[in-house]
Amino acid sequence: EAQVTQNPRYLITVTGKKLTVTCSQNMNHEYMSWYRQDPGLGLRQIYYSMNVEVTDKGDVPEGYKVSRKEKRNFPLILESPSPNQTSLYFCASSPGQGKVRSYNSPLHFGNGTRLTVT
Amino acid sequence: LAKTTQPISMDSYEGQEVNITCSHNNIATNDYITWYQQFPSQGPRFIIQGYKTKVTNEVASLFIPADRKSSTLSLPRVSLSDTAVYYCLVGDISGTYKYIFGTGTRLKVLA
Questions:
Q1: Angstrom distance (rounded) from CA A18 to CA A65
Q2: Structure confidence by residue, pLDDT tens digits, A67-102
């Protein structure tokens, strides 16, 4: 089944303890991205990746890191989490066509990771 | 950057047609308009996409005027299961690859 898989679904941690949220897709998509969703603010893009080893900042990248060493995986790293990073996080992917704009290809989203930082 | 504006919320009754309009004044020439549906605690799901005029699929229609500065998602004969948040999405005009979602429209379907 074609899907985007995020792990874990729920995570409670403490301030400053490094964590990684994994994202994997099995559709051979070139484009992947991370979003956070907060009440009243909708979906905000954190980072995106057009292809392996190519990543760029979205609208709210502060406090986050990403890497794209393989096409299928796009982990989100919080080096020193803080309470304001408590949120619902979504990973998404789309086919893309190399350097051609891929945002006309619909995004496929994972089921989300609910992170609480105390 | 392209920004979308949608009504924050709408209520409707079962069996009615619902129209949700999205404004996107800075849409780029080659951009498509895409609508997503999101249920609580789930990721958004693609509904429909279009470039101009009208597009229809098995779940919705999308109306886009000639100037493309707005679009209207039409849901025919809604049911309780259509209660969700609906997002309009367009690409940005800066030449990057950012997707910019608005705050969405929360549709509540009443019995």
A1: 11
A2: 999 999 999 999 999 999 999 999 999 886 544 444
